[in-house]
Design a protein that fits this description.
The chain contains eight helices and eight strands, in the order E-E-E-H-E-H-E-H-E-H-H-E-H-E-H-H. By secondary structure, the chain is α/β, with parallel strands linked by helices. Helix 6 packs parallel to helix 8.
Length: about 230
């Protein structure tokens, strides 16, 4: 069907050290402007929208107003958010406004790494968020990172097992990359884990470029393939 993607805000309010989006600041669009854009899309036959905000719902008051104003449009939509942003009342508002799929970064089931890389969430919060989404009839997409410095073979296998048993409907597995502008990149270069001249930064298709890590690049790529094959 006809669909469109759009942003209701720019950048990200969080500071995960592996993500370049955290480096560009954060700004909300006006709700009237967002609604005007949706009216235009709707007039062109669009009935499905992918909200590409890094964290849909980060400003609760604004999000409740936006959901209320989305209800008359009779559209379906997907959004990316965080497990520590979701709540029962927010999910009810999103569902009522047409949301059918929620995506969030789970990354790893290693709580120590989530803390080290400033994700700011825990595995228990992930479990609770998945359960809340399923209770409200929403599909869930989980995003995972394979091969963060400090991760181990056993921990990554546990992450893959978690993906398969957690109840999520879809999974995206991405190889850790020292992406430009990130704290991860500067720390990895300083520690000798990464080459400052490396520009292979696509976490879904590029081969890993780490040096002197716990796991070899070949093992990370193997785990990446295993994750997709075993999940699907």
């Amino acid at each position: 069907r006809h669909f469109a993607s759009m942003l209701t805000d720019f950048g990200c309010a969080y500071k995960c050290t592996y993500c370049p989006i955290s480096t560009i600041g954060f700004k909300l669009r006006g709700i009237d402007e967002v609604i005007e854009e949706i009216e235009y899309l709707r007039s062109r036959g669009v009935r499905e929208i992918y909200f590409r905000d890094q964290t849909f719902g980060v400003n609760k008051k604004r999000t409740f107003e936006l959901c209320e104003r989305l209800e008359p449009f009779d559209i379906g939509w997907t959004c990316f958010t965080r497990v520590d942003v979701l709540s029962v009342d927010l999910l009810e508002a999103m569902k009522g406004a047409g949301c059918h799929t929620v995506m969030f970064g789970i990354e790893t089931v290693n709580d120590e790494l989530l803390l080290e890389y400033k994700k700011g969430t825990t595995v228990n919060q992930v479990r609770e968020a998945i359960a809340l989404c399923k209770e409200h009839g929403l599909d869930v997409v989980g995003f995972f990172i394979i091969g963060l410095p400090g991760d181990t073979m056993s921990a990554m296998l546990s992450t893959i097992d978690f993906a398969k048993t957690s109840g999520i409907d879809f999974a995206s597995f991405n190889k850790a990359m020292p992406r430009l502008g990130t704290t991860l990149r500067s720390e990895a270069i300083e520690a000798g884990y990464a080459d400052a001249g490396s520009l292979d930064l696509d976490s879904s298709t590029s081969d890993p470029q780490w040096k002197d890590q716990n796991l070899s690049n070949e093992e990370i790529s193997m785990l990446h393939r295993k994750a997709y094959r075993s999940f699907y």
